[in-house]
Amino acid sequence: MRRNRKRSGKNKMRFSTRNIFFTLIGICCISMFVSLTFNINGGPLKNVADYVFGPMQRGLNQIGQVLTNRKDELKNLSKVVAENERLHKQIDELTTENSTLKLKQYELENLQKLYELDQKYPSYKKTGARVIAKDAGNWFDSFVIDKGSKDGIEVDMNVIAGSGLVGRVTAVGRHSATVTSIINDTCNFSGMMISTSDYCIIRGNLMTMNQDQVIPFDTLKDPKDKVTEGEQVVTSNISDKYLEGILVGYVTTIKTDSNNLTKSGTITPVVDFEHLEEVLVIMEKKEYN
Hints:
Elements: H1 2-37, H2 43-120, E1 126-134, E2 142-145, E3 158-161, E4 164-172, E5 177-181, E6 188-193, E7 199-203, H3 206-212, E8 215-220, E9 232-235, E10 247-256, E11 263-269, E12 278-282
Antiparallel strand pairs: 1-2, 1-12, 2-5, 3-4, 3-12, 4-5, 6-7, 6-9, 7-8, 8-11, 9-10, 10-11
Helix pairs in contact: 1-2
C-alpha cells in the first residue's frame, strides 16, 4: 500500500510539473499570438515575454558569442601554428645556407693562403693535396694525404702549408701518402738563421709542443750574439732532406750553452699543426751534386 501511495505521489508530481510546463508554453504562445495579431508592443504581455524569454535569449546570445570567439581563436591559432612552422623551416634553411657559406669562405681562405705560399716559392713545382687522416692526438705530427704515386708523389718530397714547412713524405701508396711533420719526435734537420746564416739543428718534440707550442734547436754558433728572439729560421742548404730556404718559424727563446761555445733555444713554427686540411707537395727532392 505504501509503495502504491509513493508511486501515486510521484506520478502526481510528474503530472503537475508537466502540466505547469505545458501551461506556461501555452500562455507564451497565446501571448505571442495576441501580440503579433493586435500589434501590441508594450504592456503586460511584453513584460511577461521579456521576463520569461529575456534571460534565455541573453544566455543563447552569450553562448553564441563564446562559440564565435572560440572559432576565431582556433582559426587564429591554426594560422599561428602554420606561420611558426614556416618560420622554423626558414630558420633551418638559413642556418644550413649560413653554414655552407662559412665553409666555402673557410675553404676559400685556405686556398688563398696556399696560393700566396705557392707564390712565395715560385721556383718549385707543386701540387695541392687534402689531408684525409691523421694519428691520434691533437697534433698533425703524422698524417695521410689524398695524393700518391699515381700523382707523382715520392718519398722525401717536402710538404708546405700556411706560411712555411710542414714536413716531408715518408711513405707512398698508389692513391695516398704519409707525411711526417717537423714536430714529430723522430724528426731533426739542419736549419739556418736568416740574419747571420748560422746553422743549427732543429728537433721535433711533441712534449714542448704540448707545453708551449714550440720545438727546440741547438748547436747554434753565434759568437757575436747577433741572433735574438724573433729571428727567422729557414731550412739550410746543408739539410739532407729539405730544400733550402723554406721558412720554419721564429726564435722564441735563446741561451748560451754550458760549454760557452754554442747556443740553444726554441722555435715557434709558422704552421698551425693543430689544424691542417690542405697542403702543397713540392714535386722535387733535395739533390746532391
